[in-house]
Amino acid sequence: MKTLLTIMYLGVMLAAVFQYSGGVGTGDYTDWQAIEVNGKSRTPQGAFFVKSGDSEFVVYGSYKETRSFWYQVDYFDQIKVRITEGVWGGERIAALIYRGELVYGTQDYEKGLSAKRTSSVQNMKYFSITYLILMGLIILRERKAYH
Questions:
Q1: Cα angle vertex 59, ends 58, 61, to 5°?
Q2: What is the pLDDT along the chain (147 residues), one digit of tens a residue?
Q3: Which is it for the CA torsion 4, 7, 11, 16, positive or negative?
Q4: How many CB atoms are closer than 10 A to CB 71?
Q5: What whole-number distance in Å separates Cα of residue 142 and Cα of residue 16?
Q6: Mutual orientation of helices 2-22 and 106-146 as an angle, nearest 10°?
């Protein structure tokens, strides 16, 4: 039981570390550029994507603004974007202007990354505490069984 629990713990922590480091941008943004939307998609987890040409961009602002934009934007709409690339690849929209209004800027993008990283660290802490408690209980139970 301890071995299985440890393997599960290591797997979850490894996934959390990848998620944590994947939330880091390179810090380099392109200049504002206009792109034409020719598709959009959404994952069940709530990530929004916009397609332009052969590229698919993650819309990475705050959830409220991103969701509102995603429902309004349509095929062949022109949007202005500043793009950055994540550590694990994948282009992200770091700032977005739609219909002449700023949906979110690079400061909002960086604030969102910071919040995501903080949340990841909190989740890793909670999971580690739970793991330690469960392992302690298993060890106590084993010691009682031998005495």
A1: 135
A2: 788 888 888 888 887 777 666 555 556 788 999 999 999 999 887 788 999 988 888 888 778 888 889 899 999 999 999 988 765 567 888 889 999 999 998 888 888 777 777 877 888 888 889 888 988 898 888 888 876
A3: positive
A4: 11
A5: 30
A6: 170
